[in-house]
Design goal:
- It is built from 18 helices and 21 strands.
- It is an alpha/beta fold.
- It starts with a helix and ends in a 15-residue tail after the last helix.
Length: about 500
């Protein structure tokens, strides 16, 4: 066989291999046999490494398929693909996959990590931004209308001179925000149709009554980014997997959380009424609804010391202040009462709400004393005693493992009049001056001084005993001697 024939045969083999790649809902299914060739033959490809049992992957699947269809309908050269990482473990390891889902975007064979959202529109926006100009050049009214029809949020800059300083600021911002579509136009017909002035930026959104919001702040990258970030969200955001990143990763760190039940019709009853205060405090306080019917949201209720029986209800949380919580005196969710509650918070007139359980009648009965918010100071800060306190979470595996050891420790010191062994559920009791970052946290409050010394040694009866007997010295020495365990899975307090 001639060299030419060999080349033709090889080419045919490659073509057949690529053509034979299976698809599911428009998404290419990649394996170790076809992965490299698929990346080579497609200049732009977003690849999801998933696990069939992963809940997040299951939630992403329909949105991912919808995004693939959208791109195909637009005849885009961008392809979406997926790899079952449980079946293709070698492939997943080769591409640095450590969790599910992991998405990587391959451009001409080289990848970047995907940092966009988890809904179809956000996926399409992100990959489109990574393969073209940051803002689509709009040459006609029809092109503007097509862009507005295709996206829930669109930011358009109207500039006759697209080399102006303000136009450059606009394009810089468009280049840094991947979640939303940006357009830029200098067309006279477009200016006339939308009745805009030269040098203006407007944000168009389909929700909240189809608002069109002009940018009227100082012309800086930071201010324009903030404008988009604040106004691209609904006045009242519903908390779910798709919005969680925007809610907690956004610039607004004070949130009003409104706990409702869809099954009981609370959304129809209350949401419209809280839009007025949401509009007043837009950019300062984020208004968020949480469907308490969802089992996944039960831990959030627990974090606020609530159950489904307390719904409907509202709380304010200040993320930048150690997750500080604020509870209204009046639980009514009328627009007027919500306005009063949020205004008092904004004006600094509310006192932080600290969770506490009722003090059990038998709190002092057993060798390990039970502390709650109301008796903590009396017991832990008794200067006549050294008091060891375990701050725990009922659901924490490490805490559960510690129970028999800690009970033995209580037995050992139960007759010592100068030592108290105690514990407190730190998920249900909060202290303003004590910050718990992980579970369990074990702290010795020293006799006479009340100095707080955290234990960092091994959680054994011997180790804890040495810590107490050395007045907190042993635990500190153990901390210095320990190597950092990068795989430590000790639960953190802020893990909901």
């Amino acid at each position: 066989m001639s060299v030419t024939s060999l080349i033709v045969v090889a080419a045919l083999c490659i073509t057949t291999t690529v053509a034979d790649i299976a698809t599911e809902d428009g998404v290419l299914v990649l394996t170790k046999e076809n992965f490299d060739q698929a990346i080579t033959d497609n200049p732009y490809m977003l690849v999801e490494f998933y696990a069939p049992w992963c809940g997040h992957c299951k939630s992403l699947a329909p949105e991912y398929a919808k995004a693939a269809k959208d791109l195909a309908d637009k005849k885009s050269e961008i392809k979406l693909a997926k790899v079952d990482a449980t079946q293709e473990s070698g492939l997943a390891e080769k591409h640095g996959v450590k969790g599910y889902p992991t998405l990587k975007f391959y451009r001409h064979g080289k990848f970047i990590d995907y940092t966009g959202g988890r809904v179809a529109d956000e996926i399409v926006n992100w990959v489109t931004k990574k393969t073209g100009p940051p803002a689509k050049h709009l040459q006609s009214v029809d092109e503007v209308k097509a862009l507005l029809d295709a996206h829930n949020v669109v930011v358009i800059g109207f500039f006759k001179n697209q080399e102006s300083e303000n136009a450059k600021v606009f394009l810089d911002v468009a280049n840094t925000i991947d979640d939303h579509a940006f357009g830029i136009s200098s067309n006279d017909d477009v200016f006339a149709e939308y009745k805009v002035e030269d040098g203006k930026v407007h944000l168009f959104k389909k929700f909240d009554g189809g608002q069109v919001i002009p940018f009227e702040d100082e012309w800086t990258t930071e201010k324009l980014q903030e404008f988009v970030s604040v106004n691209a969200l609904p006045l009242v955001v519903d908390f779910n997997q798709e919005t969680a990143q925007k809610i907690f990763g956004g610039d607004i760190k004070s949130h009003l959380l409104v706990f409702l039940s869809k099954e009981k019709g609370h959304y129809d009853q209350y949401v419209e009424g809280i839009k007025k205060p949401a509009e007043k405090f837009k950019g300062k306080i984020l208004f968020v609804t949480i469907n308490a019917d969802e089992d996944d949201h039960e831990r959030i209720l627990e974090f606020f010391g609530m159950t489904k029986a307390d719904v409907p209800a509202m709380r304010i949380i200040k993320l930048e202040q150690d997750m500080a919580k604020f509870k209204p005196e009046n639980p009514d969710l009328s627009g007027e009462n919500v306005m009063e509650f949020v205004t008092a918070f904004h004006d600094g007139k509310l006192k932080r709400h600290l969770l506490t359980q009722d003090l059990p009648e038998d709190w002092n009965k057993n060798p390990v004393k039970v502390l709650v918010g109301t008796n903590f100071h009396e017991v832990a800060f008794d200067k006549s005693k050294s008091v060891l306190v375990e701050f725990y979470a009922p659901w924490c595996g490490h805490c559960k493992q510690l129970v028999p050891i800690y009970d033995q420790l209580g037995e050992k010191y139960k007759d010592n009049k100068e030592i108290v062994i105690a514990k407190m559920d730190a998920t249900a009791n909060e202290l303003e001056e004590v910050k718990i970052n992980s579970f369990p946290t074990i702290t010795l409050y020293k006799k006479e001084t009340n100095e707080a010394v955290e234990y960092n040694g091994e959680r054994t009866l011997e180790g804890l005993s040495k810590f107490i007997d050395s007045d907190g010295v042993y635990g500190q020495a153990a901390e210095e001697a320990q190597e950092v365990d990068e795989d430590d899975d000790t639960p953190r307090k802020d893990e909901l």
